[in-house]
Amino acid sequence: xxxxxxxxxxxxxxxxxxxxxxxxxxxxxxxxxxxxxxxxxxxxxxxxxxxxxxxxxxxxxxxxxxxxxxxxxxxxxxxxxxxxxxxxxxxxxxxxxxx
Length: 99
Known about the structure:
Blueprint: E1 20-26, H1 33-42, H2 48-61, E2 63-70, H3 71-87, E3 93-98
Antiparallel strand pairs: 1-2, 1-3
């Protein structure tokens, strides 16, 4: 018994990458520069020199980019910053915005 089978092939595959978000630290008049560097090294895994550069950017420009992540990871990083700041008595804030 002979069967006729047709196969359809997809010639073009379209992949969508997840949206990415910049995580920003915001400047305030109370959080110490040393604490900001510590946050950048511990939570964002920056080396000392890069952390220091980002901290100066936050200090001089009012905000600085810590990294670019998917939405869920960005939310987690922000929550970690807020928790560590609260635990240490600092008002440091972080936010995310579209890349």
